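ugh ok fine here u go
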Amino acid sequence: GAVALSAVVALDLALAALPQLRWVPARSLEEAVLPIARGQPGRPPPRVYRDVARTDWSAISYEGRAIVGARTMVANLGALFRVASVPGYESAHDAEYHRVWDLLASQGGATLRVFSVGHAILAAGVADPALAEIGVAPPLTVYAVRDPLPRAYLVGRAIHAARPDAAQLLAPDVAFGHAAIVADAAAALDAPAGRAGPCRFVSWAPARGERRGDAARAALQVLVDAHSRGWRVEVDGHAAAAVRVNGLVRGVRVPPGPHRIVWTYRPPAVAVGIAGSVAGVLCAVVLAWRRKARPVGRAEAASPLLS
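structure:
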């Protein structure tokens, strides 16, 4: 039963993804991505946005037969956070995630700037003051996002808004990293806008990252990576409260001074799965013990099948 169910889900996912795939010339893809693909040790990989909504992928040649995953990445922030989604399989994103993207999807480069996207691969001729064309490898064009926010930074002002609107999220202080919007009122900071000190990456991995920050005043450390219930944060070795920031990303309050901030991820369902497995094993042991300890009746003892 489980094997059959897995096979059905795999087939359904394949059929959903297949229409999203397109072929592109391998040389074009390599030339377009190479200048921005180099990362640095201990830092997150460069963030690149590939927008299928503004790129005519159907016009791309089949030459080279190199499959590019851009078409599997729907035109939403899943692409920003390196999550490939196909229709019907977007449940990893919560309702707030989709609400915020619906608000900001039409804002172009301004949205990419807020979410620390350094480059975008789009069609040629995109007119956007937040984007600068830096290379063309037909049919792809690479744009640099002007003044994107760093992946981690400290701000001295945090404004509470449980459901921020587009005007709040793209306000100049928020867009340029001088303030942030927090979903939790307890994390708000009523102070002048501005950066509160330096913040740098010490190490980075998909499920764990360490940053060092030196806050000149009470501050909010903003980490421009997706918010999820599975993330835990420690400040100087002590558990702290993670907070949703700018609708989609996460952060943590820190007092003045130097700090070591460590984020770790554990899927919320892991504990439930472990508990269920342990309960299942215990039930199996108890049932086996009861069956073995059950007294044999006279009819059973006389049966030749049991002798």
